[in-house]
């Protein structure tokens, strides 16, 4: 089975400048507006979770979220909120740990949570890679030699 495509910003493969520019433009067109609105149908707890994840992913200029990500962010917030609710119920009534329906629901929401994390690149490995790419991008922007070469290349 083929691996899923990655954003050009998170690829470690070496691409030509033309390939990189072309992919970035295509991804930016598809990404849409990065000003993501919290859906009204979320509960207050889910809105807090949604806003937290959004703020963390938008921090440090990562610029990886687009308008289409509102759906996966919403699902992630709902999943986390429901997992918390199940865990609170189990913590308050420990005998629920043996209830097959509760455990089955928790297992389903846990699987959904990990799927959402994968979609949003929330694994430690994905975050490290994004952080590394952001750091190298900042270094490129401040490196005087690279600035001179870029100016000469664009002339």
Outline the structure in words.
By secondary structure, this protein is mostly helical. 66% of the residues lie in helices and 0% in strands. The chain is built from six helices and no strands.
Structure in a nutshell:
This protein is mainly α and 155 residues long. It is built from six helices and no strands. Helix 3 (70-92) runs antiparallel to helix 4 (100-119).
List SSEs in N-to-C order: HHHHHH
- The percentage of residues in β strands lies in under 5%
Helix coverage percent: 55-70%
- By DSSP, the count of extended strands is 0
The DSSP helix count reads 6
**Approximate shape:** elongated
The rounded distance between the terminal residues' Cα atoms is 44 Å
Mean pLDDT comes to 79
Query: From the helix content, strand content and strand pairing, which structural class follows?
Result: mainly alpha
- Biggest sheet overview: none
Rg from C-alpha positions?
20 Å
Name the poorly predicted regions.
none
Describe the SSE topology.
Blueprint: H1 17-31, H2 44-58, H3 70-92, H4 100-119, H5 124-142, H6 144-154
Helix pairs in contact: 2-3, 3-4
Which terms summarize this structure?
elongated, 6 helices, mainly alpha
